[in-house]
Structure formats: C-alpha cells, structure tokens
C-alpha cells in the first residue's frame, strides 16, 4: 500500500485528541482479504479505553454543543474538503483492508464525504417551533437540542461511509461521539479521524476505540449513563442484543440491521434496464451490502430471456485483487464469509436449484475469491431465500402474478430494501405501496444518497440515516411553556 501522506495510516486508538496505545497493551492484525497478508497491527482496546473515551466525550460536550451551528458547520466543511483532497490515499487504505476495487473505494470516499457536506448544511437548519397557545397569557415554544454523548458502532463492508453517516449528523447536531469500528477494517476510520483533527475538530469530540472484545466494548457503551444514544449498523441478532442492553439506561437508538431484499422483474419491464439495475445493486462490494438483492423474482413469461441476459453480463465481470487495473469484483472479507456462500449454494443444490454460471471458488486468485454466480430454480424453502447471502450470487425464482410476487417479497422478517422493474405507472405506485421495506428502488438499483432517508422496517431496524430525518436522530425536543405574560413586570 503506497500512500502520498503516510500520516493517514494510523494504528493507535484516538482518545481525547491524542493517539494512544491500548491500556492492555495488545494488538490486532488487519489482513488484506485478497492475500491474507497483514496490512497493519492496530492497538487492541478494551473496556478501560472505552471508559476513557466516554469521559473525554463527556468533557468535550459543553464546548462543542456551545458552538454556533455555523462554527460546527465550518469544521465539517473543512473535513469534507480534506477527505476529497486525500481520496486516493483513503481509497488505497480501504482496498488494502476491505478488498473492494480501488475505483469503488474512491466512490465510497465521495459518498461518505457527501454526508459530511450535507449535514454541515443541515446544522444551520435545526429549527424549533412556536405553537399557538390555548390562552393569551402563555407562549408555547419547542427547542431542539443535541442528545449528548453518542456511541457509534460501524461494520466492515463500508468502513468510510457508514462512519460518515453517523458522525456527520451527530457532530452537526452538537453531540460528541465514541466510535467502535469493525476490527477487520479500522484503518479507514482512523484515517478519517486524522483528517477531522486537521480540520479543527476539538479534542474529545470524536474518539475511536478499536478492539476485538466486542462484547466488553459494547457493554461499556450500553451500560454507561453518560452515553445517551447508540447508533449501530450490523446484524439483526447483534442489534437485538444491543437494544436490550440499552433498555437499562433508556438510550435513544438507531439500528440499521439485516436485509433480505427482493428484486422483482415484471413481464412488462424494460429488460435491458432491469439487467443494468440488478448488476449495479447485486455486485457492488462483491454482494456484501445490506441492501443487496438477495432474491431475484422474475415473471415466468420472461424468466429464461432475463436469466440469459444476466448470465452474459456476469461472465464478463473481471474478478481480482482490488488494486489491479480493471477489476470490478474483489474478494470476500474472510474465510467465514466464503464458507457461508458455499453452504447456501450446497443447500440450494440439494433442494433442486441449478447453477447456471459460476458456483465455486477462484483458487488461482486466492482462497477468498468466489466466482460471480447465477443460480435458478430457487424456492422459498431454501436457506438462501431466508438468509443474507452476502456474496456474488444471483438467486433467481419465478412467479406467475403480481400478487404472488408481492406475497413472496414480503415473506421475510426483514424490510430494509426492495426493488422492482416495470413500465406501468399504476403498477409502480401499487407495488411500491404494497412492499414492506424502508427503501424501494423502482427501475433503479443504485438507491443510496445522502439526500434521501436510509433505513428499514420490521426487523431491519429503527430510525433513518441521511436526509433531513438523519439529524433528528441526534436531537431531543424540549417544550417551553411561558406563563404569566398578562401580568405587568
């Protein structure tokens, strides 16, 4: 990994404005998924480090909260510019620790930076209300104030953007933050904080603790009465445990959890557009996204034509290490990830599904590379219809009617994203309103943007990130009732 600015490669914890060794003295290796080689050794923090970070965030809160919205916005805008100036270095760090192709990694830097710019602007639009009072001697007013110290726990699949999506609104609102990035991909978070410090972020406002003992770190965050808000992106099972743990101190919660997104292709769809939408949504980050299409439902009348068109495109995908020119599909994150894909495919084959393209590892490239795969004859009883595949597998099912497609699509405890393709305006409205998901892509596979709310329903989570709603997650509403106004002073 070659960087123009070597200071961006940080390996210590960041607490109270300083780079520190972990109190326990341990380290965790960060591996390159493409090669398995160690990229860096990062300090392995624990409960004591988390407590120090919470104390730093608590001490920094009055000063940061007390700044004007414009002053906070100026710092965020300086941070945004620095992220873009160092985009290539940040992309190189991400590719080395996460595996995605350099071009895609650079796109994520843009995506994450746009959240910071958006919420820098939203900081100046946190409005209260004047409410018509029931009598002339009163005035009723609401204020919106920062919730306080925030804990942010982020996943490995989007190590820059997921942190930006949490930090930007929290900081814009006037909160201070303790971050726990995934141990597979901590370098991106540490590089981002290095640039935030250069942008003028005061000490203690953002703190980063990396550590393998996720249970101990999570418990320290959830048990602390100082931490008033938890924002988590990850699995539904972990989200449920965190939600339960936060009950003791009644914290505010934002949870972006698992998904099982359907991608429906109706008989009246523009097939070329539908294939483009599926390819963009399915193979981004090698299928390792929470809004990735997990079940592709195709009308029986166009099933074979659609599958043929998808297979042609899949065969053209260039798979390899993310730093190689032209690569569009990198490795899976670790051995467990590739083993899960193999298990789901084995279960599908056992129950009658047929692999049309791919279906195995690419040993010549390395143990974590998996062939982009298309499998047909998938049924609702197969595990891949229920479990997140989180890999480059297009699992195709057929359906006979619109009602059947909607019923299959909604037959899941998840409700993060859903996609469908149709030329009919009336069907677009009808199906969009019937699908049980927080995000709907209609004739479009790339739906994420900082200007729109991101989040799910059912067991896919609570709250929204991005858009105007994103900053609301970090604010409390305070009601003021001013009485006695009919009396002379």
Automatic annotation (TrEMBL):
UniProt keyword annotations, A-Z:
Oxidoreductase
SUPFAM superfamilies (alphabetical):
ALDH-like
UniProt keyword Oxidoreductase, yes or no? yes
Domain annotation Aldehyde dehydrogenase: ranges: 19-479
Q: Name one Pfam family in it.
A: Aldedh
Q: Which domain of life is it from?
A: Bacteria
Recorded hits in InterPro entries, A to Z, give: Ald_DH/histidinol_DH, Ald_DH_C, Ald_DH_CS_CYS, Ald_DH_CS_GLU, Ald_DH_N, Aldehyde_DH_dom, Aldehyde_DH_Superfamily, Succ_semiAld_DH
For molecular function, the Gene Ontology terms on record are: succinate-semialdehyde dehydrogenase (NAD+) activity
Q: Name one GO biological process term.
A: gamma-aminobutyric acid catabolic process
Q: Where is the active site?
A: 256
Give the family, as the similarity comment puts it. Answer: Belongs to the aldehyde dehydrogenase family.
Protein name as it appears in the record: NAD-dependent succinate-semialdehyde dehydrogenase
**Species name for this entry?**
Alkalisalibacterium limincola
Q: Upper taxonomic classification of the species?
A: Bacteria, Pseudomonadati, Pseudomonadota, Gammaproteobacteria, Lysobacterales
């Amino acid at each position: 990994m070659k960087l123009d600015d070597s200071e961006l490669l940080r390996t210590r914890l960041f607490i109270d404005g300083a780079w520190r060794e972990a109190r326990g003295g341990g380290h965790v290796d960060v591996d390159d998924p493409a090669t398995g080689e160690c990229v860096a050794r990062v300090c392995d923090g624990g409960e004591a480090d988390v407590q120090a970070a919470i104390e730093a965030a608590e001490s920094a809160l009055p000063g940061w909260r007390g700044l004007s919205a414009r002053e906070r916005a100026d710092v965020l805008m300086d941070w945004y510019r620095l992220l873009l100036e160092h985009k290539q270095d940040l992309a190189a760090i991400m590719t080395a620790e996460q595996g995605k192709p350099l071009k895609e990694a650079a796109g994520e830097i843009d995506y994450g930076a746009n959240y910071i710019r958006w919420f820098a602007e939203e900081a100046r639009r946190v409005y209260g209300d004047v409410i018509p009072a029931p009598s002339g001697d009163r005035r009723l007013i609401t204020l919106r104030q920062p919730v306080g110290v925030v804990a942010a726990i982020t996943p490995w699949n989007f190590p820059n953007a997921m942190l930006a999506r949490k930090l930007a609104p929290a900081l814009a609102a006037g909160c201070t933050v303790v971050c726990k990035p995934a141990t597979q991909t901590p370098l991106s978070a540490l590089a981002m904080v290095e640039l935030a410090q250069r942008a003028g972020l005061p000490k203690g406002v953002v703190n980063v603790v990396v550590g393998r003992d996720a249970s101990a770190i999570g418990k320290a965050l959830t048990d602390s009465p100082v931490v008033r808000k938890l924002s988590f992106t990850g699995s539904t099972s972990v989200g449920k445990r965190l939600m339960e743990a936060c009950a003791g101190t009644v914290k505010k919660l934002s949870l972006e959890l698992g998904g099982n997104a359907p991608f429906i292709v109706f008989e009246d769809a523009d097939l070329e557009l539908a294939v483009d939408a599926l390819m963009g949504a399915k193979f981004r980050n090698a299928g390792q996204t929470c809004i990735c299409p997990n079940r592709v439902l195709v009308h029986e009348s166009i099933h074979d034509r659609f599958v043929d068109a998808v297979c042609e495109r899949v065969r053209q995908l260039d798979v390899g290490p993310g730093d190689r020119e032209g690569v569009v599909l990198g490795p899976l994150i670790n051995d467990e990830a590739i083993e899960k894909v193999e298990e789901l495919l084995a279960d599908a084959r056992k129950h009658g599904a047929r692999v049309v393209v791919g279906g195995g590892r690419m040993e010549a490239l390395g143990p974590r590379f998996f062939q982009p795969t298309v499998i047909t004859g998938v049924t609702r009883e197969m595990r891949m219809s229920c479990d997140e595949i989180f890999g480059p597998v297009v699992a195709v099912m057929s359906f006979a009617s619109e009602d059947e497609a909607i019923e299959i699509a909604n037959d899941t405890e998840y409700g993060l994203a859903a996609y469908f393709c149709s030329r009919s305006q009336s069907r677009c409205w009808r199906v969009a309103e019937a699908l049980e998901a927080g995000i709907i892509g209609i004739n479009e596979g790339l739906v994420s943007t900082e200007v729109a709310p991101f989040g799910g329903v059912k067991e896919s989570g609570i709250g929204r990130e991005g858009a105007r709603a994103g900053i609301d997650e970090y604010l409390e509403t305070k009601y003021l009732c001013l009485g006695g106004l009919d009396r002379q002073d």
